[in-house]
From TrEMBL, chain A:
InterPro entries: Prefoldin, Prefoldin_subunit_alpha, RNA_pol_II_subunit5-mediator. It is found in: Nucleus. Residues 153-291, 306-353, 373-402 are annotated as: Disordered. Residues 113-140 form a coiled coil. PANTHER family: RNA POLYMERASE II SUBUNIT 5-MEDIATING PROTEIN NNX3 (PTHR15111), UNCONVENTIONAL PREFOLDIN RPB5 INTERACTOR 1 (PTHR15111:SF0). Keywords: Coiled coil, Nucleus. Gene3D superfamilies: 1.10.287.370. This is Uncharacterized protein. It comes from the Eukaryota. Residues 251-260, 331-344, 373-391 have a biased composition (Polar residues). GO terms for cellular component: nucleus.
From TrEMBL, chain B:
This is Protein UXT homolog. CDD domains: Prefoldin_UXT. InterPro entries: Prefoldin, Prefoldin_subunit_alpha. One of its GO terms (cellular component) is mediator complex. GO terms for molecular function: transcription coregulator activity. PANTHER family: MEDIATOR OF RNA POLYMERASE II TRANSCRIPTION SUBUNIT 10, PROTEIN UXT. Gene3D superfamilies: 1.10.287.370. Pfam families: Prefoldin.
Amino acid sequence: MAAAARKGTVTPLGAVFSPEETRRAVARVAEAVADRRTELGRLQGFVADNAALVSLVQRLPDELSHDIMVPFGGAAFFPGRLIHTNELMVLLGEGYYVERSAKQTTEILHRRGMELEAQVEAMKATISDLEAEAKFFESTATEASEGLVEIREEYDEDTEINSSTLEASSSASGMSEKEREHARIMARLDELEMEEKDAGSTSEEDGEDDADDEEDAGPSEEDEEEGNILGHDNDHHNASFGASFSESGGNDQSHQSAQLKSALKKPGGREILKGGSFAPSASTPHLAFPGQTSIINSGIQLPTKNAASFQDENRHAVGPSKSLPLPQGPKHSSSILEVSSDSTTSHDRKIISSGQKAFTGSIIEHDDNIATLQPSKSDALQNPVTSSSRPVSRFKMQKGGR
Amino acid sequence: MAVAEVRVRQEKVKKFEEFVDQRLKLDLVSAIAQRDKVFQQQKTFLDLKRNIENLEKNGVTSMRSMVNLGSEVYMQAEVSDTRHIFVDIGLGFHVEFTWQEALQFISVREARLARQIDEYTHLIASIKAQIKLVCEGIRELLQLPAE
């Protein structure tokens, strides 16, 4: 999008990590690895010595005495023999010796051996760490030499909010602005459609066809129930609510979710109004809007109407499709498919679908925005909410398409 | 002209310094290490001589000692006959001597070790002299005043 191009910076990786420096880093790490390896060899030598000594100490008491050459200084020997073969003096450190039997000595040596093994393991871990580091440096060096670039875009919450509110207020203020917006959305829709065509598999196209068919059916039913209730309400609300969401088409989802959270806190009475029957709707961001809650309240008193209230969300979602003729069809296909497929209706399914539509529903007047919202928003929502296979697959497809 | 001369001089200084650092100093270190090794040998033979003289003086015919099995673990050992001693004559050979023969051998060996030490000391001195000479040469090239 244009915003991304404006904010993003592109840095060739080669400029950040000069090939020479990375090579030097690789060399240094390799040197460290070599050092550690010699240290490891030394430790393993200790381990081997220890094991040999253990077996020697275990074997010596088998005989009463052993004929050996007794060292006499550094350069001479006397012929002699080992006596008292079950008495050993073991150095404990700091010049302290202790007299132990062969068995006790073996235990001491075993404990030393375990300590040495631990050290060897630690050294091996260090070496593998260093090797991973070296590999990373090497891959960085090759990437830099291949001319890889790093694309970075700063996210500044304040500026994002400012721009969004600006956009919102301006769109709410004038009709001309709205028309411009509409034109922009149409362009975006065309673009998306093209993308979808490019990426489209046959199955997706089938889905779209279905969606179009059912779209026609869906709204008419819902309209009968809901049209009058919401029809007029829409007009006042979009100015206020739509505004807050108008930026969603182009902006980060994180931002939106943040807004949602804050919005969720606002309506204190909301939950009470809706009651237990609405519990599933907790997942629908729709609730976030106090104004709309009140609408639902006034319009729908009966618990059975809850489904209807969800449907009205759907209707919102569908509604725009009237004004925006074709391109919108495919965008809605997933959710609408669901609704219409069981228009004989189980409530959960509708709730699910409404969950998907939650955002579109809340954007009442900004029919145009729905289109842009759809690909990004509904996808994100679909993921957690839906259990049915259809939307998920579509989600994947869209993801692949983009 | 002058610039070229300066550059040639700098090249020369650099070469001298490299010679000192990478050749002479390494030679010096290895020579000192070798001399230390010889000192060690001299000390062991000196000790052996003193020990044999002690045995002779006290007329010891049998003795007990502690044998290092490795990792500072010791076991008692008994020598029943001390009149015959096996001495390391170099290259891993040991020869069975009586005390007198051992003392003779040790004196010969000590003389040889002393000569070796002298040689190494001379070598070290000459290497040091060379280093000094090259340093003087560098000083002259840089036209610094003598200390």
